[in-house]
Amino acid sequence: MVDTLSESLDAIVARSPEPLPEHSSLAPTQPSPTTVEPSAPTSVMPGPAPAAELPTLVEALGQRVQVAGGAGPLWAFALIAVALALGSMALTSGSCSALIARSSAPAVRATSAALPSASAAVVPPAPLPPPVAKSEAAPLPVDTAAIEARTARERSVDDVLALSAARADEKRRGLTGAEDDPARLRAAANDPDTMRDALGAMAKLSSPLGPDLLYSTWTTRKKGDAAAVLAEALLASDEVRKRASPALLVALDLRAAESCDAAKEALGRAAEHGDRRVTPLLGRFSQKRGCGDGKRDDCWPCLRDGDELKTAAKAVGARVPPKL
Questions:
Q1: What is the mean pLDDT of residues 26-38?
Q2: What is the C-alpha separation between 178 and 200, in angstroms, rounded?
Q3: Which residue, among 220, 278, 284, has the nearest Cα to 251 in the 3D structure?
């Protein structure tokens, strides 16, 4: 603080370099120095009068001044003025701080109330329930009796579709217990509404009957028929083939043979296990053309020197295929 006061007074002195007038109320009370009469002029011109020296800070602070009827050293009045200024600044700062504190107190209290106390146990939030898997909405029940009561021209498009779906669903439910009835499965395979369910039930039968039913559906339908295409695809699965009878495996392998060696091996098994289902396939191996440039070459040359075809044809002709 003393350093700050000294710097402030130096600044005051620097701004007021001229001496105070004699009659000023702030003039020093010490007696003025005695005036010295100038001596008689001489032949030598006197030089410029030296500038009056300014009092130092210590000397200025030590001078006595009169302020409002009181007298005292200048430093005492300066110290009083600085103290008053600092007190005023402190009072103003305290008032502002009090106003700010009063205005922010509700927000602080609200924040404190929102925060849990240190002694309170922190309860973790309850876990969110797992998302519910979206499932297709169950179809609304169809009043088939009401739709059937209308004439064909009175039924809307939705009525016709709903009635068809209801009838197909009723047919599929009617297949329950048909696994032991080959006739019902074959009849259901002929109906577009139950074709997939019937062929699926055939493929899952644990006995050779299932593959035999699939083979019959495949070979008795027109090429490209939906039921024939699905039956063929099911028979190509190893899951179905492992339940097929040896006679059916011979027929499947002869149909799939692409090389002469594969055909010769299947014909050897046909002579031992094949049945009449193989007979229509033997004509394929009797043809001596169909391969090479212009399809003039024999596709099965390895069968010409032996009697595999004759032996297989005689054996399978004597065996009756299973009745379905």
A1: 44
A2: 12
A3: 278
Predicted TM-score of the model (pTM): 0.54
> What HEC string does the chain produce?
CHHHHHHHHHHHHHHCCCCCCCCCCCCCCCCCCCCCCCCCCCCCCCCCCCCCCCCCHHHHHHCEEEECCEEEEHHHHHHHHHHHHHHHHHHHHHHHHHHHHHHHHHHHHHHHHHCCCCCCCCCCCCCCCCCCCCCCCCCCCCCHHHHHHCCCCCCCHHHHHHHHHHHHHHHHHCCCCHHHCHHHHHHHHCCCCCHHHHHHHHHCCCCCHHHHHHHHHHHHCCCCCHHHHHHHHHHCCHHHHCCCCHHHHHHHHHHHCCCHHHHHHHHHHHHHHCCHHHHHHHHHHHCCCCECHHHCECCCHHHCCCCHHHHHHHHHHCCCCCCC
Give the model's confidence band at 79: pLDDT under 50 very low, under 70 low, under 90 confident, else very high: confident
**Model confidence over 169-213: pLDDT tens digits?**
988 888 888 887 889 999 999 999 999 999 999 999 999 999 999
Listed range (141-150, 153-162, 194-203) with the worst mean pLDDT: 141-150
Q: What is the pLDDT of residue 207?
A: 93
Q: What is the pLDDT of residues 241-257, one digit of tens each?
A: 999 999 999 999 999 99
Q: Which of 263, 266, 267, 265 is nearest to 300 (CA)?
A: 263
Q: Which of 5, 3, 16, 6 is nearest to 85 (CA)?
A: 5
Tokens of 210: 């299932």
